[in-house]
Design a protein that fits this description.
Length: 640
């Protein structure tokens, strides 16, 4: 069986990982008989057990090989029948191939008019025991190690052994000697042949011994004797050629050996190919790809500006090329020149800066039909990264105490606080559910747009200032974060109408200072809050929001197991009843004098924002962070 390994499933040292084309010869029982119509023109037919399902010793494989017929793919169209796997020595074709009881069965017609076909029929009449060799491609094989066992084709085998798990049947050939010697092959001649056919003679189809030669009439024997002698001489010469090829290869060059046998090489040509194969080869050389592309330029900009976490954004090859290609960093002019060169610019310097900009931004090269680097995308991507660095560098306490709402437009939206008349009502048997309400507490919100324009003008380019796309966007990002804080804390601290004594959510007095007693009083007041029906709201406090002056005290109340009182006139508390209860959030805006309602002593006990938020922030389409929008026509950038 001629094999090629395409994707071996396992490849231990004792099994070839890429075996050369081999002849894995299976045993076969072959019969050739007349067609059923009894006409003189009927072609001889054959039947064969093409493969018995057993293990074989194959050249190029250290251990035996068994083909798993369950994994063999058999094409729907007929398969060619050849002589010795030679495409030029056709014998016939199949019209039936099946797997039966762990064996590969085939039947067909001796349909080729070749000397090989005549040799097969004539030699079978004379009792020659033909065998079969199955040609297929090996797509997956498994090596079974020693001390292991495997069941294939209904039989159990002990390792070491190779199991061909997936293969595709290509062709079947008549051969004189196979690797599996358990079966034999014979040919029964066609009945009712024309007397003028010297190669095929009459045969009794009811004979149960297909290996038994018949005695043809004297005239046909005399007429075919010379032809049979010639065919046998050719077969003997072929056997001698194959033996010479194998002696030259000596089992060390299975690929060359298989090709030489398949293509009819003589020993001299085979020896020449073996000499070529044994010549020392030059060492392999790895030529890295040093092409500068958009990713390389973007990485170079981030490395130059000392951006954080650059390794997470690019693969090692890109970072290595950017570092080697732009040692010492990349400037804005060099960035634009690299983009212009990639887009077809032929100049070598930045003197004609207008032309460089035209090519860098992809203008004026429509006739060339290509553009390999998008400088606008690089500028936007780099600027966005530094924009976000600046945005996340400022305080974000607001994000931990509020609820976030997504809106799709800039219209005013109304939200309802889900407390109050939302309790379930008893449903009588067979009765219907009563209509509920959302409660009487509601509030409104509205999204708006904030932004700032950043222009990369001619001065930045002439000054070769890369900071136009690195430092400035970082400042814009920081400004975005500061603006959100400004809007949020301005709204939050204007809370005199929300936190009132009438709503039982505001406490004043000396005993409300942040301490164990003050926190206990605030906790009691929070848990005693009621809804519009006078019933408990059922929400527990979870956060403690404090200004910077109370940060240390808040951390002590949250983390310390003990708080000792060193005064001699009061109680001496030891355990901290509030340890681990309320997560501390600190904001520098609470005591800042620029905001109405500021205080360095006021602090807040809040519910988890997912349960009952004290304040809500709305973002258009959920976009919380600023983004960069570019306009190529003016080479300007806008952050919003």
């Amino acid at each position: 069986m001629s094999t090629k390994t395409k994707k071996p499933r396992s490849a231990p040292n004792d099994s070839p990982t890429l075996p050369a084309p081999l002849n894995l010869t299976a045993t076969a029982h072959i019969e050739v008989e007349a067609g059923g119509d009894g006409e003189s023109t009927a072609l001889p037919r054959f039947q064969m057990v093409a493969y018995t399902g057993g293990a074989m010793r194959i050249a190029g494989w250290k251990f035996p090989v068994v083909i798993d017929l369950a994994g063999m793919s058999i094409p729907a169209q007929s398969r060619p029948i050849r002589f010795g796997h030679d495409p030029l020595s056709g014998v016939g074709h199949t019209d039936s191939i099946r797997v039966e009881q762990g064996k590969l069965m085939a039947a067909g017609v001796v349909s080729r008019d070749t000397s090989a076909a005549r040799e097969v029929v004539a030699s079978s009449k004379n009792g020659f025991p033909w065998q079969a060799s199955v040609g297929a491609s090996v797509e997956e094989f498994e090596f079974i190690k020693a001390q292991q066992q495997v069941t294939v084709n209904g039989r159990q085998y002990a390792g070491p052994i190779n199991v061909v798990r997936k293969s595709t049947l290509g062709e079947i050939s008549f051969v004189d000697l196979g690797a599996d010697g358990e079966t034999s092959a014979s040919v029964a001649a066609s009945a009712a042949q024309e007397s003028g056919d010297p190669d095929v003679t009459d045969h009794d189809n009811d004979n149960d011994e297909p290996n038994t030669p018949t005695s043809p009439p004297a005239a046909p024997v005399a007429a075919s004797a010379a032809t049979i002698s010639d065919i046998r001489a050719e077969a003997a010469a072929e056997i001698e050629r194959i033996a010479a090829v194998r002696r030259v290869c000596a089992g060390r060059h299975p690929q060359i050996e298989a090709r030489a046998i398949r293509e009819g090489w003589d020993s001299q040509r085979t020896e020449l190919e073996v000499l070529r194969a044994t010549r020392p080869t030059a060492p392999a050389a790895h030529v890295p790809d040093n092409t500068v592309n958009g990713n390389v330029l973007e990485a170079a900009c981030l490395l130059t500006a000392k951006a954080s976490n650059v390794e997470d954004a690019f693969d090692p090859q890109t970072l290595d090329l950017a570092a080697r290609r732009f040692r010492g960093g990349i400037g804005l002019q060099e960035l634009l020149l690299e983009a212009a060169w990639a887009n077809g610019y032929t100049g070598r310097n930045f003197r004609d800066n207008r032309e460089v900009l035209r090519f860098a931004f992809g203008r004026g090269i429509e006739a060339a039909g290509y553009s390999t680097i998008d400088i606008s995308g690089i500028l936007s991507s780099v600027a966005n990264k530094f924009l976000l660095e600046g945005f996340f560098s400022v305080e974000r306490t607001w994000r931990n105490i509020c609820a976030v709402r997504n809106v799709s437009d800039f219209k005013t939206v109304t939200s309802y606080r889900l407390i109050g008349t939302d309790q379930y009502e008893l449903v009588a048997p067979g009765g219907e559910l009563k209509q509920g309400t959302l409660g009487s507490e509601q509030y409104t919100n509205k999204a708006d747009t904030y932004g700032l324009m950043l222009a990369i003008d001619r001065r930045d380019i002439i000054n070769d200032d890369l900071g136009a796309i690195t430092t400035v966007p970082r400042k814009l990002g920081r400004g975005s974060g500061l603006k959100i804080n400004d809007v949020f804390w301005t709204t939050f601290l204007a809370n005199t109408s929300f936190f009132t004594a009438g709503k039982n959510n505001s406490l004043t007095g000396a005993d409300t200072a942040l301490s164990i007693d003050g926190l206990t009083k605030a906790e009691v007041a929070f848990m005693d809050q009621v809804d519009s029906d006078g019933k408990p709201i059922g929400i527990l406090p979870a956060l403690m929001l404090v200004p910077t002056a109370l940060s240390a005290v808040g951390s002590q109340l949250f983390k310390s197991m003990e708080l000792r009182d060193t005064t001699a006139s009061n109680k001496y508390p030891v355990s901290n009843p509030h340890q681990g209860k309320f997560r501390v959030e600190v904001s520098r805006y609470l005591a800042n004098s620029s905001y109405t309602g500021n205080s360095a002593k006021a602090w807040y006990l809040l519910a988890d924002p997912t349960d009952l938020p004290v304040i809500e922030v709305a973002f258009l389409n959920g976009q919380e962070s600023p983004t960069i929008e570019t306009a190529d026509s003016s080479a300007s950038t806008r952050a919003s």
